[in-house]
Amino acid sequence: MIKTLKNLLKQDKERYTVPRKVQDVIPVRRIWKDGIFQVGSRFSKTYKFTDINYLVASREDKESMFLAYSELLNSLDSGATTKITINNRRLNRANFEQSILMPMRGDACDVYRREYNQMLLDKATGVNGIIQEKYITVSVCKKDIEEARTYFARIGADLIAHFATLGSKCTELDAAEKLRVLHDFYRQGEEAAFHFDPQDMMRKGHDFKDYICPNSMEKSSDCLKLGEKYCRVLFLKDYASYIKDSMVTELTDFNRNMMLSIDVVPIPTDEAVREVENRLLGIETNITNWQRRQNANNNFSAVVPYDMELQRKESKEFLDDLTTRDQRMMLAVITMVITADDKKQLDSDTETVLAVARKHMCQLAVLKFQQFDGLNTVLPIGGVYIKARKKMADGESAFACAIPWQVPVLCHVRPFEYYDGLRDTLTKEEFMRECESKCTGSVDNPLLRDQYVQDAKTLTIMEDRHCGDPNVRYYIGYDVSYRQRNGNAMCAEVVLKTYEQRRSTSFKKDCVYLTDLPPLDAERQARRIKNRWAQYRLEGAPEPIIVIDSWQFGEAVVQQLHRDLGDGLPPLCTVNNDDRYLDLVQKNAKPCIYSLYATPGRSGADPNIDMLDYLTREFEHGNVGLLITNVHEGTRAYKMAHNIKDDTQDVKIQHPYIKTKELCDQIANLRRKKTGSGWTQEEINKHINKDLWSAMMYAARPIKLDEDAFVASQNRRKSSYQEAAEHLDSEITYAPVRTRSVRRLGRGAIV
Question: Domain range for residue 149?
Answer without folding.
Answer: 3-91+129-191+218-270+324-386
